[in-house]
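User: SDR family oxidoreductase. Structure?
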Amino acid sequence: MRFSGKTVVITGAASGIGAATTALFAREGATVFASDIDVAGGEKLAADTEGDVRFVECNVCDPAAIKALMDRAASETGGIDVLFNNAGAGGARADITEVEPDEWDRTMDLLLRSVAMGIRYAVPHMKGRKGASIVNVSSVAAVGPGYSPTAYAVAKAGVLHLTKCAATDLAQHGIRVNAIQPGFINTNIFTSSLEITGEMKEMAKAAIAQLSSNAQPVARGGQPIDIANAVAFLASEAASFMTGTSLIVDGGLTVGPRHSWDPEAPRMFSALEAMEEQMKQAAQAN
Ligand SMILES: NC(=O)c1ccc[n+]([C@@H]2O[C@H](COP(=O)([O-])OP(=O)(O)OC[C@H]3O[C@@H](n4cnc5c(N)ncnc54)[C@H](O)[C@@H]3O)[C@@H](O)[C@H]2O)c1
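Assistant: Predicted structure:
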């Protein structure tokens, strides 16, 4: 019960990493304000999860909605102890020679401005709270090119720098700020933006699960709970001397892909692209 009596705010909580982190904090005694744009998913999460989980609708591209979320969490409980800036999606897919300005801006709003505004509007409610901590989701895509589309990678690299700047700005208030860099984690993020439905979506999810289990040196797929455990550690007293840093939780993906030692393993990103292409062709044929 590391978080007994604590108030935790999580964005993008209805699925994947956010849902697993919500369940973990709630199990360990926190009151969790689980927010998302997905109202049905968020309400189901709150109903199905053990502990005090309160769903709040919040689109992180809307700063006013972020402020309302933070204000509500504080007015219901007296303040905020932990903020997990997690919401996200794949963003603009085009490469730098073709990306449209609006798509670029939307990606930055979703993945980078959202984190800045989350901090901006949570901090007034975090000052003076013992052990206050912010965790921001970056990605292995921030390590270097080749893990994701360009706009996503740039936004996630921005999250790392924002984390360092915020850590120095907020140290005077006793608020720690760290980031987490997940590797290939088996969630809906890879299929939610594909314009396919029903059976094909299930096929795509199965293909992703298969790919993710072969992608990295550790011989299993990354799961949302792997990230939730690391987030809870960063937010806990055990990490009280850590701020302005980042944890890579990727089963060794950035050290060397599985095919560096396993000749049977698929080349992950070319396999992902091939799968998406197949899905697009199947959707067009239907
Ligand atoms: N899954 C991975 O391999 C991986 C790797 C690195 C980083 N990440 C990051 O982890 C975070 C969580 O992703 P996930 O893998 O759990 O994906 P997911 O698709 O399972 O969950 C993302 C959640 O964010 C919500 N969301 C999307 N846009 C939103 C918005 N505008 N406002 C509020 N909520 C919004 C979605 O509704 C969804 O519930 C993202 O920031 C993602 O970029 C994921």
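The chain is about 45% helix and 15% strand. The pocket of nicotinamide-adenine-dinucleotide is lined by residues 11-12, 14-18, 36-38, 41, 58-61, 86-89, 110, 137, 139, 182, 184-185, 187-189, 192 (CB under 6 Å).
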